Amino acid sequence: MNSDWASENLQVIRTLMERATQYRRALAPMTLLAGVLGLVAAGVGWYAQFDRPVTFVTHWVISAWVINVGALLIARKQAINAQEPFWSSPTKRVALGSAPGFFAGGLLTAAITMRWAEEPQVVPWLIVIWLLCYGCALCAAGFFMPRGIKLFGWLYLILAALMLFAYWPSWLKLSVLGNHLVMGVVFGGVHLAYGIYLHFTEKRGDAS
Amino acid sequence: MNPEPFLQLDRVIHEKGRMAIMSLLAAASELSFTEMRDSLGMTDGNITSHIRTLQQAGYIAVTKSFQEKRPLTTCSLTPSGRKAFEEYINLLEQIVKLTKG
Q1: Whole-model pTM?
Q2: Is B41 helix (H, G, I), strand (E, B) or coil?
């Protein structure tokens, strides 16, 4: 008598337990929404000339909340259509995994904005911090999501590194248009591109 | 090989479909009927039958509710179900060790 069947059963159990923790909602609609609203927010920010840190931060925090609420509504609709609970175990893991990154970003944003409320030269630093914290949040959430999310998170970390070092001199001289343009490209444009990619590649079975 | 661990295996769990359901529920606090069905690729009838067997054994709890006027059936492991599953895994590990040793 051999124990192959026992080893195989243990392997099956391990695989299924991992699968049960994976977030399965379709991500394409959420990333497309984030992309489009990110580009719109960049246009509005530039048009309204939100150049002071306070107005810049307020504008982008409100935009982020609108995008988050929209994404949550999409996820909720998907869950209802699939007859699955919205606040499922994988959803909780994704939320808890990404929370520290968002918390760190929020804390640094609040501290910098309060300390240098009237100094526009801190705005590029805020963008770098947001890229870093968002990238970290995605990487952490990626442990409970499809593998692409972790790579997507790394893309944001690389973008932050590029902005911090490769474009250092020009970075600090960005105009109002420049700051909002960068935000539009790195948050709106990148999400839109990823959303289009997901729209054509995401398994339809995942779009429950 | 000492056959004792094999004889101790819980016959309710030691069936492919039910073992799969128990595995999913051991990792998630609760899962809906459709999540389990889609994850395991089972038919409605097949998974219903396994859920009933596990429920009768007292290993899983089934909750029926409504979400936006749509029925929502969720399952979760009971404490005795979790204990039985842990014992099942321990026995499998013992069997592997016994045959390798």
Answers
A1: 0.78
A2: coil
